[in-house]
Every structure is written in C-alpha cells, then in structure tokens.
Amino acid sequence: MSLFSAHSLYKSFGGIGAVQGVSLSVEPGEMLALIGPNGAGKSTCFAMLGGQIEPDMGEVRLNGVALHGGPVSFAHAGIGRSFQISKTFASMSVGENVQTALLAAQRQLWRLRSAADAQVKAEAICLLDRVGLAALADHDAATLAYGDTKRLELAITLAATPRVLLLDEPTAGMAQRERRAAMELVASLAQDGIAVIFTEHDMQAVFSFAHRILVMDRGILMAEGTPAEIAANPMVQNVYLGTV
Ligand SMILES: Nc1ncnc2c1ncn2[C@@H]1O[C@H](COP(=O)(O)OP(=O)(O)O)[C@@H](O)[C@H]1O
Ligand SMILES: [Mg+2]
Q: For residue 240, how far is its CA from the centre of ligand 2 (angstroms)?
C-alpha cells in the first residue's frame, strides 16, 4: 500500500474535462514531478490532491484510507501544501509567523500556550533553521526577499508536520540560482522522509531532482518513468517537450 495515492480522478469545468482519470502514488522520501504543457490539468490535479477541489469521480487516499472533507481535513491528515502568506502574516516577524503556524497546528494546546511560550519559540527557530531562515527570525516578514518568502511559506507548511508535500511550481518567479537552492531544500525534506509531489516548468529542476516523472497532456497521464526514461520517450518529446 502506498503512503499517498490518487485513484481515477476526474474533474470537469463546464463540460470540459480538465482531469480525466488520473491515478498516481508516492512513497515516503520520493520526489514525484507532474509535468505537462499549460492547461494539461496539473493544477487541477493538485487541487484535488490537497482537498481544495472535490473530484467528480475518484478518490485520494493516505495509507489506503480515503480522504474527505476539504483542505483543512486533508491538512490535519498530513497533506501539506504551501500557501501564500497573507497581508496579516506579512505584518508579523518571520519567527512570529512560524510560531502562529505551530500554535494553529497544535490546536488542542491553544488555550494553554501562547506565542511567547519558550518552547514554541524554540520549535519555530528549529523550523526556520531547517529552511535556512533562522538568522532572519526577528525581521518583518514583509521585508523578506522573494526567495526567502518562499522559504518562510515552506516553514509554515512544515509546522503542521506533513507526511506529504504538494508543491505547485515551487520555483516560479525565482532567479536561476535561487531555484537550485529551493529545490535542494525540497530534496532535503524528502530525504527526511516526506513524500513530495511537485509541478514545475523549469525542466532542469525537474530532471535534476525528480525520482519519477508523470507527464500529463489534456487531462490524461500519457507517460510515467524515471527522468532518463522520460527524456528518451519519443511520445513525450513530441507531445510535451515539442510544445514548449
Ligand atoms: N476553476 C476553473 N474553471 C474553469 N476552468 C478551469 C478552472 N481551473 C482550470 N480550468 C481549466 O482546466 C484545464 C486545466 O487547467 P490547469 O489544471 O490549471 O492546468 P495546468 O496547471 O496544467 O496549466 C484548462 O483548460 C483550464 O482552463
Ligand atoms: Mg498550473
């Protein structure tokens, strides 16, 4: 049984099949890339994997158990998805952001703990250290450079101790050098045992970091394999790589 899997997911928008029968699975420590041309259905797939969109048909399972109930339930089950920090969060310090995320993740202790709690602070520093931001803990989140904001978003996601991480274009908007560092960070999280599923336009990032690649085209999975297999697949070259 796989850690995390999707079984025959379907989703249409106004009669147009954005995702038509996608199945996939991922194991702890694995980095799975989902690639394909614009409009292939990658983001729609992600939204179903994260519970934001309910599939028309099919289901998502964690350890063989079907997940239901939307993104909050999925998050509590252990599905992490990076989100953009809101304006409110941008007005707090980097450390306070992570402390707030930790308190939210440990809801049962909400009334007994506060952000001033020394242990919460220590846990936050630990997470910031994990993403390379410990030195900026006291800075306003709003002043962070773009790449560091992404790292903070990742630390906030990690506060909920996810077993699966869904990253839709984690390096979008980054400069080449930042991209490599960001992917190295994600790879180190996988090495710690998190299962990572990511979409990415940067083929260098995909082929350097994915253990396995799924290729989508017009809502359908049209190829699956190791980076070497996908690079050598003439159908992929034709249908996908030929279109970018
Ligand atoms: N909320 C939506 N409403 C209507 N159509 C949508 C919506 N989201 C996605 N689509 C359509 O579904 C298809 C797949 O989109 P998407 O999942 O965003 O692809 P990708 O992420 O691979 O670019 C596209 O044709 C897109 O226009
Ligand atoms: Mg997309």
A: 15
Residues, CB-to-ion distance under 5 Å, ligand 2: 42-43
Residues of the chain with CATH 3.40.50.300: 1-78+162-244
Q: Which ligand is nearest the CA of 36, by number?
A: 1
* The pTM of the whole model exceeds 0.90: yes
- Nearest to 213, CA basis, from 79, 24, 50, 10: 24
- Could you identify the atom of ligand 1 that is nearest to the CA of residue 219? 14
The count of other CB atoms within 10 Å of the CB of residue 63 is 12
Query: Read out DSSP for 19-41?
Result: EEEEEEEE-TT-EEEEE-STTSS
1-78+162-244 fold: Rossmann fold (3.40.50)
Atom of ligand 1 nearest to the CA of 44: 17
Cβ–Cβ < 8 Å for 168, 198: yes
Q: What single-letter DSSP state applies at residue 67?
A: P
Per-residue pLDDT of the chain (244 residues; tens, 9 = 90+): 999 999 999 999 999 999 999 999 999 999 999 999 999 999 999 999 999 999 999 999 999 999 999 999 999 999 998 766 666 677 899 999 999 888 888 765 555 666 567 888 999 999 999 999 999 999 999 999 989 999 999 999 999 999 999 998 889 888 888 999 999 999 999 999 999 999 998 999 999 999 999 999 999 999 999 999 999 998 888 766 554 4
